[in-house]
Every structure is written in C-alpha cells, then in structure tokens.
Amino acid sequence: MSDKRKEIPLGIAIIPVAFLIIALFFTIGILKLPPHIPLICAAAVAASVATIYKHPWKEIQAGMVHGITLAMGAILILMVVGTMIGTWIQGGVVPSMIYYGLKILTPGIFLVATLLICSIVSLGTGSSWSTAGTIGVALIGVGKGLGVPVPMVAGAIISGAYFGDKMSPLSDTTNLAPAVAGTDLFSHIRHMVYTTGPGSIISIVLYGLLGTRFSGGVLETQNIETILSTLKSNFFIHPILLLPPCLVIVMVVKKIPPLPALLGGTATGGIFAVLTQSRSLADVIEAAQTGFVSTTGVEMVDELLTRGGLMSMMETVALIICALSFGGIMEKTGMLKVLAGALLKRVKRTGSLVATTIFSCIGLNAIASDQYMAIVIPGRMYKNAFDSRGLHPKNLSRCLEDSGTLTSPLISWNSCGAFMHATLGVNPLLYLPYAFLNLTNPVVSIFYGYTGITMEKLEEKSEES
C-alpha cells in the first residue's frame, strides 16, 4: 500500500497550514476561545489531505504518536512543575520569595533585575522551564506588588530564561543545534555571542527605560505594605524557606535531570508546609493535586497565590498533544519538507538564506508547535545550502537558536508558549511585545546575514577548532 502513496504538491501542502491560520485567528481573535479545537480540526484536514494522496492511516497515526512522543518529557516536567508550585505556595516558599523580593527590589530597577536574575539562573541550569517555574513564579508576584504590569514582568522573565536556554552548555537546545548543523558545542556558543550580546544590551536599555515609568509611586508603596503585612500574618516567613529553589537550581547545575530535581523540589515544599506552616499531609497532597487556594481576604494576594497543582496543567497538556498531533502529521507525510523546499528555491543570497532559515524556524514553531522540530527540520533542510555557499556550519546553528529556540515561547500553542502561559499565568500574546531578547535576536541575525558581519566562511573552521 505504501508504494501507492504520492508526493503531496506544494499547493496542496499549504492547505492544512492555511486552514490552521484562519481557524486560529477566528477562534482566538474573534471568539476569544482556546486553540485546542482549531488544532484538532487542522490535524483532521492534514490527515484528509494525506489520505487523498494515498498515505495509509497507519502512517498518519504513527506521525501523530511520534509528534506527541517528542513532547512527553516536556509534559511530565509540566505536570511536576504544577505540583511543585502548589506545595511551594502552601509551604511558604513562594510567599517568602515574594516577601524578600519586595523588600529588596524597587520598581525602577525591577525589570532589569528580573532579566539579569533569570539570565544567571538559566545560564547555570540550562533550563528556561526550571527558571520560569522557580524564580519566575516569585518574580511575577514581586512585580504585581511593585505595580509593574504583569506582561512586562513576564517578558523580562522570558528574555532572561531563554538567554540561558540559548547560551548555556547545559541546555538541550544548545547541544541540539550544533549537532544538527555539523559544528561543535563551544564554537556554536562563542558564535552566538555576536547576536545574543547586542540583544541583551538592547534589552537592558529598554527594560531600564520602562522601569523609569514605575519608580516612586505612592499607591505602589501602599500595595507593597499591604502585601508584606498580609504575607507575614498568613505565612511563616523566613530565609530558610528560600532553600527549596536553591536546592533545585543546584541539582540541575549538578546535571541531575530536571524531572527528579523538580520532584525533589515538590517534596521539599511539602516538608516545609508540614514543618513551618502547620499543614497536614492531606493538605499537602491536595495542594499538589488541585493547587493552593489563598483565603487571606486581600484580593491581590489571593489572586497571586491561588494557583498551582497537577490539574492546573491539564489544559496545557491537552493543548500540547493537539498541537503536536498536527505537527506530527505534517512531518511524517512530507508536507513540511515540501513547504521548506519551496522556500529554499527563492534563496539567491546569503542574506536571503539566513532570513529564510529564521522565518522557517519561526513558522515551524507555529506549525509543528515544538522547538525541537523547529530546530531539526530547518537544520536538515538548509545544511547543504550553507555548505554550498562556503559558510561555516556555526552560522546555521546560530540561526537555528536565534529563531527556533527564542521564538518558541512567543506562540501560545507551542509547547514552550503553553508551558510559560500555564506557569506564569500570562498569555504569550500579552508578554510577546516585552520579550525584547527573543524579538531582537532574529532581527540581529538577519542583519548579519545581509551585511556579512560575523558570517564566517567554511575555510575558517580549522582555525576555530
């Protein structure tokens, strides 16, 4: 039966993508509903197209299963982060982080401090998800208390978290991109400094300018005092409660896999809930399962602390499964390859090759809904094109990270965007304008492509290694 399958032409391969774009725009933009059903419908359209071109259902289903399998590790981490947030709030960990953060930070420097703190943590851990799930959760609370708009705070968290996700040798994407492109890890990291450096400087300047809008407000001071007194009267607040996030960060830096490290964080939060907050074992289990419900009577504190739990992540898990089912069909049936091949035919110069690679990665983050596919597929497709132009493979690996890694949290149905939405409580569409590092890096990369700046030639490979 497989011998009868036909290659799907470009005009037909576009149909599922066009349907997805229209369906998402209509459902999210007009009806203000979640993207799950449009993604399922788009997967059905892709499967129908593949069936018409003689791709057997067994192959289509295998593509869906393979796409979902790619995200199983991420799904497990997402579920554990939900339980950890629940026990950390109940155990006084998150309230203590917020309390001391409000004591130390001021509105004027808060966004810059958020960027730098998250950059340091993510560089040490190599994980944007661990950074957002630990430090990021607390910084959202601090930002609310200081009167800084939550989307701005989330944008600074995302920028810092993905700085390390991109630059740390401990990061999976930082290892994946050079492997796909055909270069070594440290040549890849050194080459990314040329785009990440300017992007970070621009981000610091922009966050500094935004911060001047929030310095010295009277109402903000009143809010801070209210939050501090409410936290103090409802939780045992002590520096020892900062130990769980420190332990998680140390475990990840020591190369303990994220899943057991985060499970350890969940357990530690539960222990502190029993020992310091006089909670029962049943309370801890309930917080891990359904989340913590704050009943302080102060609306802004209750809104801040009522969150977490395994069940709070289930909508996001469903979203990831729906999105990757569509992406898996598109990959398995060759439709993604056809679309990428059509883009490559238009490439005439190095600048257009870089731009095509960048936009392909961004497009695949939206279509395939997974940053790994957004790195691997363009990496495979454009490797020969970079080689034929005499360009060092580290140029390609840098492009893959500048776009595939950094734009993944900006798309709400991408696995990374869905995780950040569930963890930080902010829709990616809202924090997107403030994720300055994620926005500037692709632009800087394209600029280098057209100007030739830092675009090193293949002959220089021996000098680099």
Task: Describe the protein's topology.
Elements: H1 10-30, H2 36-52, H3 57-70, H4 72-90, H5 93-104, H6 107-125, H7 128-146, H8 150-167, H9 172-181, H10 185-211, H11 218-234, H12 243-253, H13 258-276, H14 281-290, H15 299-305, H16 314-332, H17 335-344, H18 350-367, H19 371-388, H20 393-405, H21 415-424, H22 428-431, H23 436-451, H24 461-464
Structural write-up:
- With 465 residues, the chain is mainly α.
- The chain has a domain at 72-313.
- 76% of the residues lie in helices and 0% in strands.
- It has helices at 10-30, 36-52, 57-70, 72-90, 93-104, 107-125, 128-146, 150-167, 172-181, 185-211, 218-234, 243-253, 258-276, 281-290, 299-305, 314-332, 335-344, 350-367, 371-388, 393-405, 415-424, 428-431, 436-451, 461-464.
- The longest helix has 27 residues, at 185-211.
- The radius of gyration is 23 Å and the shape is globular.
- Mean pLDDT is 88; it is low at 461-465.
Q: What does this entry show, briefly?
A:
The protein is mainly α and 465 residues long. The chain contains 24 helices and no strands.
User: What is the helix content?
Assistant: over 70%
Q: Give the strand content.
A: under 5%
Total strands: the figure is 0
Order of helices and strands: HHHHHHHHHHHHHHHHHHHHHHHH
Write down the Rg: 23 Å
Main β-sheet description = none
How far do the termini sit from each other?
Answer: 49 Å
Q: Count every helix, treating DSSP H or I runs of 4 or more residues as helices.
A: 24
**Uncertain runs:** 461-465
Q: Compute the average pLDDT.
A: 88
Shape call: globular
Q: Which class of secondary structure composition applies to the elements? A: mainly alpha
